[in-house]
Amino acid sequence: MESAIDVPYDLAVIGGGVNGAAIARDAVGRGLSVLLLERGDLAQGTSSASTKLIHGGLRYLEHREFALVAEALHEREILWAQAPHIVWPMRFVLPFVPEGRPWWMLRTGLWLYDRIGGRKILPPTKRVKLQGRMGLQSDIRRGYEYSDCWVDDARLVVLLARDAADRGADVRTRCPVTALRREGHLWRIEAGGETFHAAMTINAAGPQVGDLLGIARAPKPATLRKVRGSHIVVPRLHDDPRALFLQLSDGRMCFAIPWQHAFTLIGTTDSEEGADADPPQASEAEIAYLLDAANRHFRRQLSRDDVVWTFAGVRLLADDGTGKPEAATRGYRFELDRGSDHHSAPLLSVLGGKITTHRTLAEAALERLGLMDNAGWTATAPLPGGDFKPDGLDEADNLAPLEQEIHAQAQNLSRATIHRLARAYGTDALGFVRGDMGRAVGQGFTEAELDHLVTREWAQTAQDVLWRRSKLGLWFSAEEVALLESMLPTAS
């Protein structure tokens, strides 16, 4: 059937990952009518399978990606100010190991890292003595400590989409595009049993960019390259709040990040083998590789049985001809198709990008379509729940006033639950927290929180709730999952 809205949209964005949601948000904030279409759940693919970092990408300096690193470094403090509930500073320790880069190279790289990105608040690099600290092997004696940030990646995408919707965008999840063709000077889009029209379309479908181009019968660039990145989650390897950036014997590097209080997140890999699988999964070879990386550095020796969860995402990279997948650029580029007469409705495809540069990518995409008539606005606008200013680098101090407000509204909530709500929702938590939170599901999760996720954040399934809107899936029992599923509107 035809869409209830006969007036064409100015812009249709296909793909509800971080890039698509960021583009939709920026465009609607400029006064455009915007449609955002996602075939599954928001952040269901690559955007919820990242290493959860807002960072410059220290290792990209080796590949002379100076402009990309500088752009990403500049975004760290902007994104922290926009969403201080889901973006937080983190210190990273880069140990020196004999088989790794020489000392002078690490020192030079970190000197650059501190200076090319406009760092203002984050503390600079310093040398550290290790010698058994952070659970490391006793022969790892020294290293450097530097600044970056971590992010709740899936919640970032949801908040971008929420802000877009609050500003007037039409956000449709579980609405796969089945037909896409030019009709006069418009795009005719068939999705989710409805028909929409738009003057311009942006293809931000991530690994499915090529599939969407096929549906549109548009030319496919010869530069599409899919690379899978896999991660493992294991019991917490040390009590230190700092993360580790580990040098591996094959020249690659990976992170070991304190995560969810009781776990360590280890990753990522770079593999083109099996990258077309849908959904992507970590291979046993990748799991073994990451376990070996951890065992080389940590005193506690891990086995396959210690892996409590794995996840993998596929990055669509702009192929720059580099042989090794880990060396391929993480920068973004665009392919613009204006049809055979070069005056038809434009189709802009997004290739590459990092979660850290989603905001500048959105500005660049709109500029490529000639839609940047006025100055950018997103650098100073908080995301939903982020309308409070952190006073410093300490997470507990910054969240304390908000946690006090939550406690005042619901004094029966545990301290751990209050902290989780403040960290996940920011000031938005004050909109649903109350004395009676309804039926308790487990792990501090209640009916009131579920109602917020369903009515405000497009959650429909237990997977949406437990693995994207939260990571409570790491803690929920089978009985708690069953109870949650019975309470979802789709269950009735």
Task: Describe the protein in words.
The protein is built from twelve helices and 19 strands. It is an alpha+beta fold and 492 residues long. Strands 3, 4, 5, 6, 11, 12, 13, 14 and 15 form a nine-stranded mixed sheet that branches. Strands 1, 2, 7, 8, 9, 10, 16 and 17 form an eight-stranded mixed sheet that branches. A hairpin with a 2-residue loop joins strand 9 (186-191) and strand 10 (194-203). Helix 1 (18-29) packs parallel to helix 4 (153-166), helix 1 crosses helix 7 and helix 8 (395-409) packs across helix 9.
- Biggest sheet layout: 9 strands, mixed
Structural class: alpha+beta
Helical coverage, percent range: 25-40%
Give the CA-CA distance, first to last residue.
Answer: 26 Å
Question: Uncertain segments of ≥5 residues (pLDDT<50)?
Answer: 1-5
**Could you tell me the radius of gyration in angstroms?**
22 Å
- The share of residues in extended strands comes to 15-25%
Compute the number of helices: 12
Instruction: Please give the number of β-strands.
Output: 19
State mean pLDDT (0 to 100 scale). 93
